[in-house]
Specification:
Elements lengths: L2 H22 L17 E7 L5 H11 L2 E7 L2 H9 L7 E2 L3 H9 L33 E14 H4 L6 H4 L8 E4 L2 H11 L9 H12 L5 E5 L3 H6 L5 E5 H8 L5 E4 L5 E9 L7 H11 L2 H11 L14 H4 L8 H4 L2 E2 L8 H12 L5
Parallel strand pairs: 1-2, 1-3, 5-6, 5-7, 9-10
Antiparallel strand pairs: 4-7, 4-8, 4-9
Helix pairs in contact: 8-15
């Protein structure tokens, strides 16, 4: 038998074995021990807007010789859609707690190799072994905070202390809410006396109707830009992420932030590596980098969110460390709620949100 004929036979045997293996494989993506690596040292980060100090990125690039490509998204649902896209090419993403749980269940995340992240020891024990990521297998805490009310006290002429103040008819046409289904419907549910994680269709419908009836009183459902609306005078009260308001308070002493008396949403964002990452080593290097005490402190001091890095906390701006709106007391935290993954019942919120944000007359 000729060498060429033997080669053909072995070719078809290996092809047949490949088909058999594929037939028994799951259609879901499976993480590899070592992802495909490009020749160039690159890191593709997908993060929230205004959520990092550009100097941190520049210093990381200079120190490690890695080029960082940085893109931003407006909400967790946009992040999920992008990661599930066939063209996804992100090495680090920063979902919020309930979205981490969703991404885990959909097998969209790669487990962290903790041996490559020795600075994980700096994480505050309060942020370890969370319900959304038991054992911190997939993600490292990035920042945490609350959803509250940012407002211009010169325009409101009084301190705002509650969601009842926020929805006061006296401010009709001067308020904006987040363009984000779960937290926005969550705070309305709280205001109405329900759980922000309810799966009761009647309660969700009531929250939907509450917002639909007030559509003309709402300036905008802002895509993570409520702070700009209050700075520019386009709205006097905005529902926003805590740090976004703290960032602009330095620009205008009339801007304040309140955690409403009825309660609100508390959250943790986490740095995770998606299944499609092609620069896993660089991603773990970056996570380890931002968990360094000095870097973690620089991050929180710039973006004005709360740090989950206990080694960084002593280096946080003193005024921030002592600010109960940024680091709420235990008494206040008893009124705060984490959003949780609701599985198929999430569709109840998505349907309600589509009806709330649908163009008038549609």
């Amino acid at each position: 038998m000729s060498v060429r004929l033997l080669g053909v036979i072995f070719y078809f045997l290996f092809a047949l074995l490949g088909l058999v293996a594929c037939a028994g494989a799951s259609l879901a993506p499976t993480p590899t021990t070592e992802p495909t690596r490009g020749e160039e040292k690159v890191l593709n980060i997908y993060n929230w807007d205004t959520y990092i100090d550009p100097a941190i990125l520049a210093d990381f690039e200079e120190q490690f010789g890695i080029t960082v490509n940085y893109e931003t998204y407006e909400n967790n649902e946009a992040l999920l859609s992008a990661v599930e896209s066939p063209n996804a090419n992100y090495d680090i993403v920063v979902p919020t707690d309930y979205m981490v749980a969703i991404m885990r269940q959909r097998e969209l995340l790669v487990p962290l190799r903790k041996e490559n992240i020795p600075n994980f020891k700096n994480v505050d024990p309060a942020f370890l072994n969370s319900a959304f990521d038991p054992g911190n297998r997939y993600c490292a805490p990035y920042q945490w905070g609350t959803v509250g009310i940012g407002y211009n006290i010169e325009a409101t002429d009084k301190e705002i202390k509650s969601w009842a103040d926020f929805f006061d008819p006296a401010y009709a046409g001067r308020v904006a809410l987040l363009d984000d289904a779960r937290p926005t419907l969550g705070i309305v549910l709280l205001y109405l006396g329900y759980s922000p994680n309810t799966t009761n269709p009647a309660e969700i419908v009531q929250a939907r109707d509450f917002l639909v009836e007030r559509r003309e009183e709402i300036v905008a459902f802002a895509p993570d830009t409520g702070q700009d609306l209050v700075v520019n005078g386009e709205a006097d009260l905005v529902m926003e992420w805590s740090g976004d308001i703290f960032q602009v308070m330095e620009e205008n002493s009339d801007i304040r932030y309140a955690i409403p008396e009825e309660g609100s949403v508390i959250w943790t964002d986490a740095a995770c590596i998606p299944i499609t990452a092609t620069h896993r080593d660089e991603a773990e290097l970056f996570i380890n980098y931002i968990l360094e005490p000095e870097v973690g402190a620089a991050l929180s001091n710039f973006i004005r969110y709360a740090t989950p890095n206990q080694a960084a906390f002593p280096m946080i701006i003193e005024a921030d460390r002592n600010n109960p709106a940024l680091y709420p007391s235990e008494q206040v935290r008893e009124r705060l709620f984490f959003l949780v993954d609701l599985g198929p019942d999430t569709e109840l919120y998505e349907q309600a949100w589509q009806e709330i944000t649908a163009p008038a007359g549609s």
